[in-house]
Amino acid sequence: MKKLHFALWLVYGLCQTLPAQAENWPDLPTSEAAQTALREAPSVQAALNNQQASAYAGERIAAGPYEWSVQASGYQRHLHDIGANQSDWYAGLTTTVRLPGKSALDEEIGRQTAQQGKLSLGDAIHEAGRILLAAWFDWQAAVHEVDIWQHQSDLATQQLATVEKRIRAGDAAQLDGDLARSAMLQTSMALQQARMAEQNARLRLRQRYPSLPLPDHPPAIHPQSIEQPVQWWVDSGMADNHELQLAQHASQMARLRARLADAERTPDPTVSLQYMSEQSGLTSFVGVTVSVPITGEMRRKASDEQHALASMAQQQELGVRQRLQETWQVEWNTATSNWQTWQMAQQARQLADRNAEKSARAYQLGEASLNDALLARRQSLDAALTENRAAVDAALARYRLMLDTHHLWAIEPTAVMQPSPRL
Fold it and tell me: What angle do CA 352, 358, 361 make, to 5 degrees?
């Protein structure tokens, strides 16, 4: 039994460590295509170069602020009493010695500086994902609006043909023909505007994400309900969020700088090694000089300043934590409400479509006026546009919640391509 328990525990551990396979959704680009597009985004590439710069900055800080300086001088003296010349020269090496406690803090601040670049890269990928998600659904909404207006244009053409047939048969007035023709022209104009909006939305996607494949017609939008409770999403987001990690990192860096400012109240000594040759080498001197600044009010106030900044960073971290919890709760509420709204909009559209079909048949049979038929068709159109917008809002809200809690298009910063070459 113990062996079985151990085997189950081992399998569970392996499953936890295996990378999760990318999941695809029917109304989104594939995960592979989206990740490629995000890697190539200029903001992500800029963050990647910033990460490299942060790594260099960390190494610079860890190396310490002091370097060696070399001094050398030479001169010649003329001794008038004996009528001879003497050559003298001086050489020295000077450096400021970093105290051991400060060196350890320098190294830790250097490591944290490099880590900041990695966190900023992750945050840039997330923000690029938000922009991609919004642009994708703007295009999807525009495409489906074209479909709606195209359907309405076809119905308006059929309606005009029916009216003209009745006019020729003497069952309708010429005024009905004018009304039907006006409705068809208005629908055609709206269709043209919808096509232009779709072309612009497609153009924006192609310009921002050249490698992202765009189908001629995207699949239908499939909103889904939110199954997990709000606390599940909050806990999931808090477990891995680059913005929160950046705030925590800033707070940690501020504490390190405060500790370094305290250490700086004890000045670093400056040591100088000296060698002097006089009387053409007959006399030589070797010396060591140590100088230590006397600490004063400036260092004490610098320490007070860094402690105040550390307290500020800690409160900012708390503010980010609270804001993110509020954001995810609002996003969960929005996604849940939008899905319910879409369901009602879907039912309203179905009722409006049936009413429009009945009104059109009633006009053909002479049982209703053209105004009644046109009004019913207009209501059907409004319901279709509302349902399309509700579907987009519901799907976008759910995917935004998934993206913000790292359940959509998760890209590790280490998976991003190399930064642009050095200029």
Answer: 140
Cα–Cα distance measured from residue 209 to residue 216, given in angstroms and rounded to the nearest whole number: 16
Q: How many CB atoms lie within 10 A of CB 209?
A: 23
Q: Phi, psi at residue 79, to the nearest 5°?
A: -95, 105
Residue 30 in domain: no
User: Which 3 state secondary structure label does DSSP give 120?
Assistant: helix
Q: Is residue 28 part of a domain?
A: no
In a domain, 3, yes or no: no
Q: What is the pTM of this model?
A: 0.81
Q: What angle do CA 47, 51, 53 make, to 5 degrees?
A: 115
Contact 381, 148 (CB under 8 A): yes
Whether the Cβ atoms of residue 50 and residue 121 lie closer than 8 Å to each other: yes
Q: Is residue 420 part of a domain?
A: no
Question: Which residues, in sequence order, are CB contacts of 413 under 8 Å at separation 6+?
Answer: 51, 118, 121, 122, 125
d(CA 363, CA 377): 12
Query: Is residue 341 scored above 90 in pLDDT?
Result: yes
Residue 128: which of 52, 236, 46 has the closest Cα?
A: 46
Tokens in use for 24? 């695809």
Please tell me the total count of domains within the chain.
Answer: 1
How far is the C-alpha of 162 from the C-alpha of 160, rounded, in Å?
5
Residue 137 near residue 395 (C-beta atoms within 8 A)? yes
CATH code, 308: 1.20.1600.10
Give residues with Cβ within 8 angstroms of 8, minimum separation 6.
none
Which pLDDT tens digit goes with each residue over 273-291? 998 877 666 778 888 999 9
User: What's the half-sphere exposure (Cβ side, CA atoms, 13 Å) at 47?
Assistant: 25
What is the pLDDT averaged over residues 233-262? 93
Q: DSSP assignment, residue 22? A: P
| Domain membership of residue 247 as a residue range | 40-415
Say which DSSP state 86 is in: E
State yes or no: pLDDT of 255 exceeds 80.
Answer: yes
